[in-house]
Write a structure and sequence with these properties.
Chain A: Heme chaperone required for the biogenesis of c-type cytochromes. Transiently binds heme delivered by CcmC and transfers the heme to apo-cytochromes in a process facilitated by CcmF and CcmH. The complex is a heterodimer of chains A (about 180) and B (about 650). Chain A is an alpha+beta fold and about 180 residues long. Chain A has helices spanning about 5-30, 40-45, 130-140; strands at about 35, 55-60, 65-70, 70-80, 85-90, 105-110, 115-120. Helices cover about 65% and strands about 10% of the residues of chain B. Classes of the chains: A alpha+beta (about 180), B alpha+beta (about 650).
């Protein structure tokens, strides 16, 4: 083998390695990227039924109830961003930190009837935690400013005005 | 008093590190033996100061000194002693101090074990380590001081997240950090080589043991972290492809490439520039992984905004270390002599393939990790990529890697023929083919089938490698034993590490066949999963030291025969208003039987309980394989060739240096 062909071999091997990595990445991006949507966005523009999305918002107080289908527990709850609410249907154990009035992210698909079928429900293991997307969405809709303490109770949101968010929330014992 | 002592020791260490960064460099340039001799002394001094400082912080935590803010925020009187100690590194300030302490221990190790290095090289390596250490100690002192006092001192601390009160997590961070920080030594060697302007076989030989040691710790740390998330978080999985996890995987991939490319430098004096770049890259990924991802700067813009000083400092420090070393590389790399090229069918050819594939995987993981935060920063779009993305991209690249890995150790250096190698490996290929056929019938997913076959192939070829070298079964056993005793331990280490990779991949492929069910039952009812019958026989309350628990009893039977009794529980920690689930796992090494107790529903007279039941085939193999890999690395470190026979530099040394 000449020196030239050896160098060529090295270059070709590198190109194949990185090329296939790039091809695999692009291919996987086109089918596996999961977009985040707020309930109002789902209402305005429902995604196709085969598209997995992340739905985030606050769990509406008093909306959580359960059914049992063929020995499996099914949880139903409403998720809101203060403008619209989507009913989520989740078969499984809700995470330890799932609470009414707290933020949640559900991964799944939107059914044709507008309800959401979750394959996964995430509530981070930290009480003061709010998923960034949820906080961003709440801020955008003018319901809450995360700089001023904990999120208000979800039940009060639909009646809340933007002015309420301006005054700092009262400090809770564990909010600091 | 003690916290002040700790603070003083930290400040002292920072000063010594600054001296360690500057004086030996001047000494090495002027060939001043006295200034160069300062390097080991300062490195050891800095190590002692930081160990003292860390001991002071632990002392404050044990003695419940809540006037120290860090202790008040993360500890409590009722916390068990073990977690008072381990809680020290369970928070940002403490973990930065731990990080700095491990770095100083690395410096001390180079000072103590690197006596056979040329004094100029040793001085420069220690100086680079000192420079990095000084930066992070300054960061610790100015923006995240663990010794800061709080006034008035609270009567009791706020306690630690109950999830972190677990022996597995207690020792996971120090081991993982040792892995991360350990790559600072190859990095320092790379920078020293760039300053000197030369890399040769001896350099490869010096740098490799440090890289292997760091790699062992990182492997162990990742395996432990994955095990922790498996049995503490109770979600039944083992790897979430979360940015924090990826931050440890990325340096592991480049570190693995480094460990292999350094062999080529040592044996063939080729791939030199590439190896230097890998050493710089691995440490850069370790640094950015620990600090950017752990501090949450990338994940959440809020964490950055909460404490701008901290964020700016860390970004500046990272830019200085990474940017500076890459700049030095760009200036100096062209001056390094390039090694020879070589034919594709040879040991070095396969090691190059290994590097290309590992770096491709690394690029894919890096893209998947960085793309979402960049999209949200630049375009405000919130997206995420998860397991489907990483499965679809990493596994197709890992499969050819495993195929070549089987050939690697069998192919001779320089120029090789494929045929003799194939002839020795035919039985391994047959077994792998058999595994492929069996797996095709048992598994649904094509990638899992291929992964199983290649994993079997890697394990069999590692066995072949050893039996061939020992001439086992072709010679009397006594002679094979003689050969085994004279064979370098590094050969056994490499074969073990490769077999460990095969075992890990088998475990991952097995886990893709895991079955799980979520059921809601009354006490006394049975459910079927994976051919076993699971019966909830009892649920009763129990009291722990700082929590109250609900403990379930689940009997698992196979064809009426009792296999095991599981006791999953749910704990409620009053002080933090938090509940945790305690998973119950029964393993027979071929499969894990995994039970989680969920919520209680219904009226008090006849409640129902939600249970999550998992059957995880081959799950323990993943962690066992990880430990075997790390053990293989440790075995090759114990090779006497590493310790004795200090490598000499080539004769051209003086000529080149004198230029």
């Amino acid at each position: 083998m000449t020196r030239k062909s050896r160098r060529l071999w090295l270059v070709v091997a590198c190109m194949i390695g990185l090329g296939s990595a790039a091809a695999l990445t692009l291919n996987a991006f086109s089918s596996n990227i999961v977009f985040f949507m707020a309930p109002s966005q789902v209402h305005a523009k429902p995604p196709p039924a085969d598209r997995t999305i992340r739905l985030g918002g606050m769990v509406v107080a008093g909306s959580v109830h359960r059914e049992t289908v063929k020995d499996s527990p099914v949880n139903l709850f409403d998720v809101t961003d203060g403008q619209a609410a989507v009913t989520v249907r989740y078969e499984g154990i809700l995470p330890d930190l799932f609470r009414e009035g707290q933020s949640v992210v559900a991964v799944g698909t939107v059914n044709p009837d507008g309800t959401f079928r979750a394959s996964e429900v995430l509530a981070k293991h930290d009480e003061t935690y709010m998923p960034k997307e949820v906080a961003e969405e709440l801020r955008r809709s003018g319901k809450w400013d995360p700089r001023f303490g904990k999120a208000p109770d979800a039940a009060s949101w639909n009646t809340m005005t933007a002015a309420d968010t301006k005054k700092p929330a009262t400090q809770t014992p564990d909010g600091n | 008093m003690n916290p002040e002592l700790g603070n003083f020791a930290l400040a002292l260490a920072c000063c010594m590190a600054a001296g360690q960064a500057i004086l030996p460099l001047i000494g090495a340039n002027r060939r001043d033996a006295r200034l160069m001799a300062l390097a080991p002394a300062l490195a050891v001094g800095q190590m002692i100061a930081l160990i003292t400082s860390f001991a002071c912080l632990i002392h404050a935590a044990i003695t419940n000194d809540f006037s120290v803010q860090n202790v008040a925020a993360n500890s409590a009187v009722s916390k068990p002693l073990l977690y008072k100690i381990t809680g020290v590194w369970g928070n940002h300030e403490g973990s930065v101090l731990l990080w700095a302490m491990i770095l100083s221990i690395c410096g001390g190790a180079v000072a103590l074990f690197g006596r056979n290095l040329p004094s100029a090289l040793q001085a420069r390596v220690i100086a680079v380590l000192g420079g990095v250490a000084a930066g992070f100690e300054l960061f610790c002192l100015t923006t995240s001081n663990p010794f800061a006092r709080v006034w008035p001192a609270p009567l009791d601390g706020q306690g630690m997240n109950p999830l972190l009160q677990d022996p597995g997590l207690a020792f996971h961070p120090p081991i993982l950090y040792t892995g991360y920080v350990g790559f600072a030594v190859p990095f320092a060697f790379a920078i020293a080589a760039l300053i000197e302007g030369r890399v040769d076989a001896a350099w490869g030989r010096w740098v490799r043991p440090w890289a292997v040691a760091a790699w062992c710790f990182l492997t162990c740390g990742i395996a432990m972290g994955s095990w922790w998330s498996y049995y503490v978080l109770g979600w039944g999985g083992y790897w979430f492809w979360d940015p924090v996890e990826n931050a440890s995987l990325i340096p592991w991939l480049t570190g693995t490439a480094l460990v292999h490319s350094a062999i080529v430098v040592e044996k063939r004096e080729a791939l030199k520039i590439w190896t230097v770049l890998l050493a710089i890259g691995t440490f850069s990924f370790s640094l950015s992984g620990t600090f950017l991802v752990r501090s949450g700067i990338l994940n959440s813009v809020h964490a950055f905004a909460n404490d701008p000083a901290r964020g700016v400092f860390i970004l500046g420090l990272l830019a200085l270390v990474i940017g500076g070393s890459l700049l030095l590389f760009a200036i100096r790399a062209p001056q390094l002599t390039t090694g020879g090229l070589f034919s594709p069918v040879s040991r070095e050819g396969l090691l190059v393939l290994n590097n290309i594939l590992l770096c491709s995987i690394c690029a894919v993981v890096l893209t998947g990790t960085m793309y979402p935060p960049f999209m949200s920063l630049l375009f405000g779009k919130t997206i995420s990529v998860g397991k489907p993305f990483f499965d679809a991209t990493t596994i197709p690249l890992a499969i050819p890697l495993m195929v070549f890995m089987g050939f690697g150790p069998m192919v001779p250096w320089k120029r090789a023929q494929m045929w003799p190698v194939l002839r020795r490996l035919w039985w391994a290929a047959c077994v792998a083919l058999l595994a492929l056929i069996v797996a095709t019938f048992r598994m649904r997913d094509i990638l899992a089938v291929l992964a199983t076959a290649t994993a079997v192939w890697v394990i069999c070829s590692s066995i072949t490698d050893i039996t061939e070298r020992l001439r086992l079964f072709r010679q009397p056993l006594a002679q094979s034993w003689q050969r085994a005793r004279s064979l370098p331990r590094a050969v056994f280490g490499a074969a073990l590490a490769h077999a460990g990779v095969g075992i890990v991949v088998l475990g991952i492929a097995g886990m893709s066949q895991a079955a799980h069910r979520i059921v809601e039952v009354h006490v006394g009812e049975s459910e079927m999963l994976a051919g076993d019958s699971w019966t909830l026989t009892d649920v009763h309350p129990a009291q722990g030291p700082n929590y109250s628990a609900l403990v379930a009893t689940i009997e698992v039977r196979h064809n009426g025969r009792l296999i095991t009794t599981l006791h999953p529980s749910k704990r409620t920690f009053a002080s933090q208003h938090q509940t945790t689930t305690e998973v119950a796992i029964h393993t027979n090494l071929m499969a894990d039987i995994y039970g989680v107790l969920g919520d209680r529903h219904g009226d008090d007279a006849n409640p129902t309980y939600v249970l999550r039941l998992h059957y995880n085939p081959l799950a323990p193999w993943m962690w066992l394989g990880g430990l075997i890999m790390a053990f293989g690395g440790a075995l090759s470190l114990s090779d006497r060739r590493v310790r004795v026979g200090a490598p000499r530099r080539a004769k051209t040394v003086d000529v080149v240096v004198a230029q």
